[in-house]
């Protein structure tokens, strides 16, 4: 999941070197925290949060296929 999120985020931003993903366990689920450069935050979130929603949908679909529960948080 982490690699997929990194790949998708790097394709969206102007500064792919600033993209990092941290993974932490939160009970039965895994939380992926996406960090991007401040000037790229709008590109990852999108208008009215559409891109962020689609990123979360992709990760959720792939994680359910593997029988896991993964959520994505976009962190400042």
UniProtKB/TrEMBL annotation:
SUPFAM superfamilies: Prokaryotic type KH domain (KH-domain type II). Gene3D superfamilies: 3.30.300.20. Coiled coil: none annotated. Pfam families: KH_KhpA-B (PF13083). Keywords: Cell shape, Cell wall biogenesis/degradation, Chaperone, Cytoplasm, RNA-binding. It is found in: Cytoplasm. PANTHER family: RNA-BINDING PROTEIN KHPA, UPF0109 PROTEIN SCO5592. Belongs to the KhpA RNA-binding protein family. A probable RNA chaperone. Forms a complex with KhpB which binds to cellular RNA and controls its expression. Plays a role in peptidoglycan (PG) homeostasis and cell length regulation. Forms a complex with KhpB. This is RNA-binding protein KhpA. The gene is khpA.
């Amino acid at each position: 999941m982490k690699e997929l999120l990194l790949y998708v985020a790097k394709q969206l931003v102007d500064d792919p070197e600033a993209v990092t993903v941290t993974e932490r366990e939160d009970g039965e689920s895994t939380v992926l925290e996406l960090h991007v450069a401040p000037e790229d935050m709008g590109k990852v979130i999108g208008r009215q949060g559409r891109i962020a929603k689609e990123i979360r949908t992709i990760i959720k679909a792939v994680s359910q296929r593997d029988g896991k529960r993964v959520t994505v948080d976009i962190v400042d």
